[in-house]
Design a protein that fits this description.
It is a single chain. The protein is an all-alpha fold and 55 residues long. The chain contains three helices and no strands. It starts with 17 loop residues before the first helix and ends with a helix. 0% of the residues are buried.
């Protein structure tokens, strides 16, 4: 996983680091074990799968 961290004077949002977190979760294969668990399914056809909400 390659990325550069540096300081900046620009304003960033509280969600600014979520891209790095997503890259890390993808790199370690976090979603695969989640899909193998028997998590509850959404109750409607508009619901999100629980793995999507966790990720």
């Amino acid at each position: 996983m390659e990325f550069k961290l540096r300081f900046t004077e620009k304003e960033i949002t509280a969600w600014g680091g979520m891209g790095l977190m997503k890259q890390m979760l993808d790199q370690i294969g976090f979603a695969r074990p989640l899909e193998s668990f028997s998590l509850p399914q959404p109750g409607s056809n508009r619901g999100y799968a629980l793995t999507q909400l966790i990720m």
